[in-house]
Design goal:
The chain is α+β, with helices and mostly antiparallel strands. The chain contains 16 helices and 25 strands. The protein folds into three domains: 239 residues, 2-Layer Sandwich (Aldehyde Oxidoreductase, domain 4); 196 residues, Aldehyde oxidase/xanthine dehydrogenase, molybdopterin binding domain (Aldehyde Oxidoreductase, domain 4, 2-Layer Sandwich), CATH 3.30.365; 130 residues, Aldehyde oxidase/xanthine dehydrogenase, molybdopterin binding domain (Aldehyde Oxidoreductase, domain 4, 2-Layer Sandwich), CATH 3.30.365. The strands form six sheets. A seven-stranded mixed sheet has the order 3-5-1-12-9-10-11, with helices on both faces. A five-stranded mixed sheet has the order 7-15-14-13-8, sandwiched between helices. It has a four-stranded mixed sheet with strand order 16-21-22-25, sandwiched between helices. Helix 15 packs across helix 16. The longest helix has 21 residues. It is globular and about 75 Å long. Bound molecules: dioxothiomolybdenum(VI) ion. Dioxothiomolybdenum(VI) ion (MOS) binds next to loops. InterPro entries: Ald_Oxase/Xan_DH_a/b, Ald_Oxase/Xan_DH_a/b_sf, Ald_Oxase/xanthine_DH-like, AldOxase/xan_DH_MoCoBD1, AldOxase/xan_DH_MoCoBD2, AldOxase/xan_DH_Mopterin-bd_sf. Keywords: Molybdenum, Oxidoreductase. GO terms for molecular function: iron ion binding; xanthine dehydrogenase activity.
Length: 732
């Protein structure tokens, strides 16, 4: 892969410092939660359902119990109702789904944990789990996906809005597009598996679990097990990839905690790669109906986007990103609507840019179809419909640099050399196509606190229970404290990933920096007040005294509750599916924006699809560290290539199970698929979005890539492909 390592900082960007924890990671010093070795650990292994829906008639545990080293086997018959059923986060709870762990003999979906073996060794636990006999009574009619006759429209907190008179404007327009799109189920597959270790000391429980949301685990587990949350500590200093799958408490944690309590010794579970497909949430398959109408100059006169998302029977979940796609372009007549379709599957969840990826594919492909119908350059179509005001509520965007992104990316890509007719850029045996699309993501934030300590020797320690997923949290925290207090960054140390520290928001919704950086700034204010230098500009402090400060982000009054008893902290985290703010503020709309450009080559005879280059440009407010931000964006763009051309969790309709639940069969882009990826950081200053001026870059990189690829494929071949993933058999 050819690419610059990171762009030169410009505008308000901070320095491109190397990673705080880089050495620890590359030398193996970084200890991930499953690396922690505790004395006398017993090992757990899940046994998961092999049917899609039905009832367990009987277990035969004799062969499993006969395996040497087996200590205990938990099933619905032996667990004894010790774990309470709790609502999912979507209904105001904490859990990724509302199932009660080993709660009954009912099976809701393939891959559901129905037993857990605990043994002296991992191998014994696995052997015994494989020897568990189960007699099932399968349900007669199974809905494996949205096409199944038994799939059903499911109640959903309505996501439905509009402005103007869509129907009249659509009918009256001279140019129209009416098209349907689909995206498949996809799984995050973080490198680090879903691991949990639990150890009790008296009535205090320590949980080692890789997590994007430590306090969600703490408070959710407290309710599930009827414990005092103050007695639960969750530790996760490093996370080996998460992408939404480690955002919320899953069923496994309470099972491991319960087993450890029963045994009076630590218990460790590492779910297998296959089990990871149903242990946590995933990107649900979606369907879309988009209708666009425009005048002859390309100005949108009517826009309608309706989405359908697969969900489980038990939990109605929808990402509903029409709240982005229907609010991005000037248009007087708009309808946005989202539906949930229930099937016999595990509850879906968040996966990197959960709704924006799929809804963006539909809308940004439809816009390309409109540009083609208008014989208009697709960049110019976006320019004609650019707007400083969000079109549904009439609210201003805090900042909007969409066209600056298009101009920067188009320039770097060489877009002006494109010829418009499909098939017109052939190069020998290769059909060449160039396509583009917008990228977007809401700028969000959530309740967070940080503590900063200044020592007499000029050293600074900054702590917050944030999460290091590889995105650069340690580096960001050190950098912000160093900058605010005017100390060299190598004098700053950082603690994160521990519920004993001041609480931080979920590392999701691209909100970590936007939430924790302002808290660190507020903590530094407190120090400067204590030193009597509150008026001195940042970086002018040469302290020679002890001081510490606690800061919370100001926009969320509830966050001030920190320092009060844990119950009030818990209030901050109850039902926190995503941080507040972003698209839902009453006075303004705050989006990070970007532009994606892709070159596609399709071999005329073999139909092999290649992506020789991709250029993205992104404006996301202040960039604290261009190196880590750039890495996030390039990673996101590579995810976009995977989502468009490779990734598809394939379902066996006979048992609603995933047939490719492993990294051999679940296709991902490899180096040969990712040739030249360039991410440009467009300087943008936004004083309204939050004190740090940060919009977040964790997810926007993936958005729009799939549409840019499908648009480039149309340009190369004249074939419009509206269903992901796009593989060579689809363009034969
Ligand atoms: Mo992200 S899907 O909010 O972890």
């Amino acid at each position: 892969m050819n690419q610059t390592l990171f762009p030169t900082p410009s505008g308000t960007m901070g320095p491109a410092l190397p990673r705080y924890e880089g050495r620890a990671k590359v030398t193996g010093d970084a200890r991930y939660p499953s690396d922690v070795r505790l004395a006398r650990t017993a090992h757990a292994y899940l046994h998961t359902s092999r049917i899609g829906r039905g009832t367990i008639e009987a277990f035969d545990l004799s062969a499993a119990r006969a395996v040497p080293g087996v200590i205990e086997i938990l099933t619905n018959e032996t667990i004894g109702g010790e774990i309470r059923q709790m609502p999912a986060i979507y209904q105001g709870g904490y859990l990724a789904d509302s199932a009660q762990p080993l709660g009954s003999a009912d099976v809701a979906h393939w891959g559901q944990p129905i037993a857990m073996v605990v043994a002296e060794t991992y191998e014994a636990a696995r052997e015994a789990a494989n020897r568990i006999g189960v007699t099932y009574r399968p349900h007669a009619a199974l809905a494996a996906d949205m096409d199944a006759a038994e799939a059903s429209e499911q109640a959903l907190d309505p996501i439905s809005f509009g402005v103007g008179d869509f129907a009249a404007a659509y009918e009256a327009a001279p140019v129209r597009v009416d098209a349907r799109y689909s995206t498949p189920a996809q799984h995050q597959n973080p490198m680090e598996l879903f691991a949990t270790q639990c150890a009790w000391e008296g009535d205090r429980l320590t949980v080692h679990e890789p997590s994007q949301n430590l306090n969600n685990i703490r408070f959710g587990l407290a309710e599930q097990l009827g414990l005092d949350a103050e007695k639960i500590r969750v530790v996760s200093p490093y996370v080996g990839g998460a992408f939404g799958a480690k955002g919320f408490l899953t069923q496994r944690t309470a099972l491991v905690a319960l087993a450890a309590r029963r045994l009076g010794r630590p218990v460790k579970l590492v779910a297998t790669r296959e089990q990871g497909f149903t242990v946590s949430g995933y990107r649900a398959e979606t369907r879309h109906h988009v209708q666009l109408a425009a005048d002859r100059d390309g100005r949108l006169t009517a826009l309608r986007h309706e989405g359908w998302e697969l969900t489980s029977r038990a939990d109605s979940v929808a990402m509903g990103a029409v709240s982005m796609t229907a609010r991005l372009y000037a248009c007087p007549n708009i309808i946005g609507r989202v539906n949930a379709v229930g099937a016999d599957r595990s509850t879906p969840g968040f996966m990197r840019a959960p709704g924006e990826m799929s809804y963006g594919f539909a809308m940004e492909t439809a816009l390309d179809e409109l540009a083609h119908a208008l014989a208009m350059d697709p960049v110019e179509l976006r320019r004609v419909n650019d707007t400083p005001v969000e079109p549904v509520g009439g609210l201003p965007y805090t900042s909007r640099s969409l066209m600056q992104c298009f101009d920067a990316a188009a320039g770097a890509f060489g877009w002006h050399e494109r010829t418009q007719a499909p098939g017109s850029m052939r190069d020998g045996d290769w059909l060449v196509g160039w396509g583009c699309a917008s990228a977007f993501y809401p700028a969000q934030a959530g309740n967070s606190a940080a503590r900063v300590r200044l020592s007499a020797d000029g050293r600074v320690h900054v702590s917050s229970a944030g999460h290091e997923l590889g995105q650069g949290m340690y580096t960001m925290m050190a950098q912000v404290a160093a900058e605010e207090l005017g100390v060299p960054v190598d004098r700053v140390t950082v603690s994160l990933g521990d519920t004993d520290l001041p609480p931080a928001v979920v590392a999701g919704g691209s909100s970590s920096t936007a939430s924790v950086a302002p808290a660190i700034m507020a903590a530094c204010d407190a120090i400067r007040r204590r030193l009597g230098i509150e008026d001195a500009p940042p970086a002018s402090v040469m302290p020679a005294m002890e001081a510490s400060g606690m800061g919370v982000i100001e926009e969320f009054a509830e966050a001030r509750a920190h320092g009060q008893p844990p119950e009030s902290i818990q209030g901050l985290y109850r039902g926190m599916a995503l941080p507040t703010g972003g698209a839902h503020l009453p006075s303004r709309v705050q989006f990070a924006l970007g532009a994606q450009f892709v070159e596609i080559r399709v071999h005329a005879r073999t139909h092999e699809i290649r992506v020789p280059r991709a250029v993205g440009a992104f404006a996301a407010g202040r960039i604290i560290n261009p190196r880590t931000a750039h890495s996030q964006l390039v990673g996101g763009m590579i995810w976009g290539i995977g989502s468009a051309l490779h990734e598809h969790s394939e379902i066996d309709t006979r048992n609603a199970g995933y047939v490719n639940a492993n990294l051999a069969d679940y296709l991902l882009p490899v180096n040969a698929d990712v040739v030249d990826v360039q991410a440009i950081l467009v300087p943008e200053e936004d004083r309204l979005v939050n004190r740090a001026g940060v919009k977040g870059v964790g997810e926007i990189g993936v958005v729009g890539v799939a549409a840019a690829i499908s648009n480039a494929l149309f340009h190369a071949t004249g074939r419009r492909l509206r269903d992901l993933p796009i593989r060579l058999e689809h363009i034969m």
